[in-house]
Structure formats: structure tokens, C-alpha cells
Amino acid sequence: MATRTDNRDRTRSTNERRERKTTRTGEKSAFDFASGNNAGPLLGALAAGAVIGIGANWARKFLMQQSESAMAGGQWDEILKIEHKATLAKFDLLLATDDDETAKRASLVKTIHYALNKHAHQEEQVVYPALRQANETVDADHLEHEHGYVKTFLYELENMPKDSPEFLVRVREFRDLIEQHARMEEEQVYPRFKEGLSEEQNKKITGLMNKEGMKML
Ligand SMILES: [Fe+2]
Ligand SMILES: [Fe+2]
């Protein structure tokens, strides 16, 4: 006589077989993320979140990430370029503030902090390790080292009185660091690295990077 445990085991192995079959026939892989094939369930979750009134901020960031990726033609380096440009534009808004606009300054520092955190996470978890695998270790280490200074600037700006006469001086220095760092990535390191990548490898990096970006929403 079949016991309850036997039945449970049978059900579990039927489900496992079904899952394996779906994986084989559907040929889903981590890379499908890049082509947006997984957007359906995510959009469903998004709608559910909206219905129960939570995750509106997450939803906004998710849609921004999707449109950013579409604008960049699904190319990891183009996505990063768009993020560089968008962040520098936020710095310009911050530099245009007056000493009495302390709330606006605090809010812009927060926005820049979020953008740089997400950007650095994508590079540090995917792009720089891929660079090291391609024997570009010196560049990867140099860039990651500079990310450390980005964090230091963020820490300073967040803890500095927003009406301090030093505030914009530090913002300008910070912007210079970001601009020079982004230029090195865009004009030297990424084009050289990308030259040696196949279409499949590019797709893989884009997919993995998008996946890491999603974790930071
Ligand atoms: Fe970077
Ligand atoms: Fe970057």
C-alpha cells in the first residue's frame, strides 16, 4: 500500500520531470533575460505590486531600466554609456543649486548615490570580472580602485552640511573624477575589450549585467 510519503515522492519527481522537460523544450537560459523574454512575469509582478499599492518606486525604476536597455540596443557598453551621461547630468543639476536649496541638494545627492551604486554594482559583479578573465586585470583593478573613491565622495557629500561653502567645491571634484573614470571606460577599456568578444559573449555580459542591475532596483 502506498504511504503518504510515497505519494509525496511520486508527486515531487513528476514535477521535477515536468520542470526538466520545460527547460529542455523551452531552451531557457540566463541569457534570455537580455532579450526581454522574461519581461512577462516581471510585468505581471509589477501590476500585482501596483494593485496592492506597494513597489511604485521599484516599478518606476524597473521601467526606466527596461527603456534604458532598449535605447542602448541591448548592448552592455551602450547601457553603461547612457548611465554615465545620465549621472553627469544629475551632477550638473546639483552644481546649479544655491546654498539655500539644501533640500534639493540632499535629494540630488540621494539620486546620484542610487545611480552610482547600481552602476558600480553592475560593473563590479559582471564587467570587471569579465575584463580580468580577458587578461585586462590592470585596467579592471584600476577602475575598481577608483570606485572606492566614489564611495568616499558619496559619504562626504551625504554627511556635509548642504549649505556649506565647501559643498559645491567637493561636488565639482567628484564630477571630475566621474567624468575622467567614465571616459577611460568608454574610450579605452571597453572598446578594446569588446573588440575581442563574440556576439554570444556580448549577449551574455548584457544579460548578466541586467540581472545584477535588477537586484539594485
Ligand atoms: Fe566604473
Ligand atoms: Fe562606468
Topology:
Layout: H1 4-26, H2 39-51, H3 56-71, H4 76-95, H5 102-133, H6 137-159, H7 167-195, H8 199-215
The chain binds fe (ii) ion (2 copies).
One fe (ii) ion binds at residues 123, 143, 147, 181, 185.
Can I get a quick summary?
The chain is mostly helical and 217 residues long. The chain has helices at residues 4-26, 39-51, 56-71, 76-95, 102-133, 137-159, 167-195, 199-215.
Keyword list:
217 residues; mainly alpha; 8 helices; disordered N terminus; binds fe (ii) ion
Descriptive overview:
This protein is mainly α. It has 2 domains: 37-71; 75-217. The protein is 80% helix and 0% strand. The longest helix has 32 residues, at 102-133. The N and C termini lie far apart (52 Å). The structure holds fe (ii) ion (FE2) (2 copies). Residues 80, 84, 119, 123, 182, 185 line the site of one fe (ii) ion (FE2).
SSE order, as H and E? Answer: HHHHHHHH
N→C terminal distance: 52 Å
* Unreliable spans: 1-5, 10-43
- Average of the residue pLDDT scores: 81
How does the overall form come out from the CA principal axes?
Answer: globular
**Largest sheet, strands/sense/barrel:** none
User: With helices defined by DSSP (H or I, 4 residues minimum), what is the helix count?
Assistant: 8
**What is the radius of gyration computed over CA atoms, rounded to a whole number of angstroms?**
22 Å
Give the strand tally. 0
Count of domains? 2
Query: What structural category do the secondary elements indicate?
Result: mainly alpha
In this entry the ligands are:
fe (ii) ion
State the helicity in percent bands.
over 70%
Provide the β-strand percentage band.
under 5%
Keywords: Membrane, Transmembrane, Transmembrane helix
Transmembrane segments: 39-59
Region (Disordered): 1-31
Protein name: Hemerythrin-like domain-containing protein
